[in-house]
TrEMBL record:
Residues 8-65 form the HTH lysR-type domain. It comes from the Bacteria. InterPro entries: LysR_HTH_N (IPR000847), LysR_subst-bd (IPR005119), WH-like_DNA-bd_sf (IPR036388), WH_DNA-bd_sf (IPR036390). Keywords: DNA-binding, Transcription, Transcription regulation. This is HTH-type transcriptional regulator gltC. The gene is gltC. Belongs to the LysR transcriptional regulatory family. SUPFAM superfamilies: Periplasmic binding protein-like II (SSF53850), Winged helix' DNA-binding domain (SSF46785). The keyword Transcription regulation applies. One of its GO terms (molecular function) is DNA binding. One of its GO terms (cellular component) is protein-DNA complex. The lineage of its organism: Bacteria, Pseudomonadati, Bacteroidota, Sphingobacteriia, Sphingobacteriales. Gene3D superfamilies: Periplasmic binding protein-like II, Winged helix-like DNA-binding domain superfamily/Winged helix DNA-binding domain.
Length: 295
C-alpha cells in the first residue's frame, strides 16, 4: 500500500512512462537524457513508494506487471493533463490564448472602442473577446464579481480596489426635434433652453453623467425640467422626434440620430464628458494591459 507520507514526483512518472514504453533501461535512459543507473534508482524508489512491483523482470528482460499496466494508464493521463495545463498557461501568458470580458456603455462603441477592438484582435487573434453593453451602475458589481475584466464607463466614482484611467473625452450635443425653433441656434450657453422639457439618462443608472448634465444647465442659470428618462440612444431619439422634449447626449452617440431630430454639437461650451477604463486591482488577467495598449 502506498504511504501517505511518500510524495511521488512528476519526474518519476516521466521516467516510468519512458521505461514502460521502451521496456529497455538503456534506451529509456537515452530518451530521458539521464544515466541508466539514475533511471534504475528512480524506478526502484517509485516501486517502494507504491509498495507494488511495476515491472516483471526475467533474466535481462522486463515487462509491465498487471499493476504496472494499470499504473501506466494513470501515469499517462496525469502527465498529459499536466502538459496540457502548462501549455494553456504558457499560451495565456504569451497572449496566444485566453479570454477577455469587456463591459461598455453604448457611446464607447460609437467612439474609440471599435478601433481598439480591431487593433487588439489583429495582434492577438486567438484571444476570445466577450462584450456586454452595460450602464455605469451595472459595471461596478460586474467588475467586483469577475463577470467582466474591464469596464468602459462614464463615471470616475469607483472604489479604491479599482484601477481607473481616462481614455476618451468629447463634447456634448443637443438633440432637438427636426422643426424646433432653436434648430439653427449657435449655443454659447444653455440658458435659452430653461423652459424646455428634457429627456435624460436616469440618475440611478448613470449618476456621474447625470450630474454633468445638471451642472451644464446650472452653469447657465437653471435646473432642467426632466419629464422623461431613457437609457438607450435610439429611445431618446424617438422621444425627441415625437416632440416629447429635448436631450443632451455625448457627441459620439449623436452620430446615430434619426432623421426626425437635429443634432447640434456644443463646441462653444467648455465642459466635456469622459469615458474611463476601470478594472479590479486584484484581476491578474494579462489581456487587460494588452487591450489597454490598443487604445
Amino acid at each position: 500500500m502506498i504511504s501517505k507520507t511518500n510524495k511521488i514526483e512528476l519526474r518519476q512518472l516521466r521516467y516510468f512512462r519512458a521505461l514502460a514504453e521502451e521496456l529497455h533501461y538503456h534506451k529509456a535512459a537515452n530518451k530521458l537524457h539521464i544515466s541508466q543507473s539514475a533511471l534504475s534508482q528512480q524506478i526502484k524508489l517509485l516501486e517502494q513508494q507504491l509498495g507494488v512491483p511495476l515491472f516483471d523482470r526475467l533474466n535481462k528482460k522486463i515487462s509491465l506487471s498487471d499493476l504496472g499496466e494499470l499504473f501506466y494508464a494513470e501515469a499517462v493521463h496525469i502527465l498529459q493533463q499536466v502538459e496540457r495545463s502548462m501549455e494553456r498557461l504558457d499560451q495565456f501568458h504569451t497572449g496566444s490564448a485566453g479570454t477577455l470580458k469587456i463591459g461598455f456603455v453604448a457611446s464607447a462603441m460609437s467612439s474609440f472602442l471599435p478601433e481598439a477592438i480591431k487593433k487588439f484582435h489583429t495582434a492577438y487573434p486567438a484571444i476570445h473577446l466577450r462584450f456586454e453593453e452595460m450602464n455605469n451602475f451595472e459595471q461596478l458589481p460586474a467588475l467586483e464579481n469577475g463577470d467582466i475584466d474591464i469596464g468602459f464607463m462614464r463615471s470616475n466614482q469607483v472604489r479604491d480596489q479599482m484601477h481607473i484611467l481616462r481614455v476618451f473625452e468629447e463634447t456634448f450635443t443637443i438633440i432637438l426635434p427636426r422643426n424646433h425653433r432653436f434648430g439653427n441656434y449657435h449655443f454659447k450657453d444653455l440658458s435659452i433652453l430653461k423652459d424646455e422639457d428634457f429627456i435624460l439618462f436616469p440618475n440611478a443608472k448613470s449618476e456621474f453623467y447625470f450630474q454633468q448634465i445638471i451642472n451644464l444647465c446650472s452653469d447657465s442659470g437653471f435646473y432642467p425640467r426632466i419629464t422623461h428618462q431613457a437609457i438607450h440612444g435610439p429611445t431618446i431619439f424617438s422621444l425627441v422626434g415625437c416632440g416629447m422634449g429635448i436631450s443632451i447626449i455625448p457627441t459620439s452617440l449623436a452620430q446615430l440620430h434619426t432623421e426626425d431630430v437635429i443634432a447640434i454639437e456644443l463646441k462653444a461650451i467648455p465642459q466635456r464628458t469622459q469615458i474611463f477604463a476601470v478594472w479590479d486591482k486584484s484581476n491578474q488577467n494579462p489581456q487587460i494591459q494588452r487591450f489597454m495598449k490598443s487604445i
